[in-house]
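Q: Given only this backbone (199 positions), what sequence would you predict?
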């Protein structure tokens, strides 16, 4: 008898359940027993795949990083798209995640980092590397746009990249905390204006 390919494996069910609990309830407040209860997967099976909660956390962080790295890299590499189009798509990636799940801090990386950085230097290092790649990618995108004349030649690309990335993260948190999801749209308009782009 063949397995149903659409049926999730126990490992996948545990990852999805733990990610949801960590992001909506909090890493520190989520026990392995709660993951067992919510997932319906036995404790023995969970510990077969993950020897402890930190190992499970690392797998979740790796999964988020891999997904966002691929999606953001794809958006940033679209040289035939205008800078406003790429900024809008990048913001949409984060906004869609926020709409799909009630993440405590508005962003999965901010939420997981603030809850676990002191306990897991490895998680902190992975998230730092993710943001370093994001900053470099946005800076390269802006430098390319400057060389094509889409942006002013004297615009400091590194500073603008830092403004964009930190603004996106801050906006995700403020949109969540204030209950104003439209803040991301306002951020987009503000960033485009500050970069002196024509809509």
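A: Predicted residues:
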């Amino acid at each position: 008898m063949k397995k149903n390919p659409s049926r999730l494996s126990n490992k996948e069910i545990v990852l999805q359940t733990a990610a949801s609990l960590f992001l909506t309830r909090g890493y520190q407040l989520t026990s392995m027993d709660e993951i067992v209860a919510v997932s319906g997967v036995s404790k023995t099976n969970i510990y077969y795949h993950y020897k402890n909660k930190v190992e499970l956390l690392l797998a979740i962080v790796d999964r988020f990083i891999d997904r966002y790295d691929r999606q953001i890299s794809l958006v940033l590499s679209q040289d035939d798209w205008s800078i406003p189009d790429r900024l809008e798509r990048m913001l949409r990636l984060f906004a869609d995640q926020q709409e799909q799940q009630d993440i405590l801090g508005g962003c999965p990386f901010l939420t997981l980092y603030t809850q676990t950085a002191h306990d897991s230097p490895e998680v902190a290092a992975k998230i730092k590397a993710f943001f370093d790649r994001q900053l470099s990618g946005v800076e390269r995108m802006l430098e390319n746009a400057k060389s094509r004349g889409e942006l002013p030649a004297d615009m400091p690309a590194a500073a603008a990249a830092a403004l964009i990335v930190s603004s996106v993260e801050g906006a995700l948190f403020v949109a969540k905390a204030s209950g104003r999801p439209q803040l991301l749209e306002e951020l987009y308009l503000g960033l485009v204006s500050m970069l002196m782009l024509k809509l």
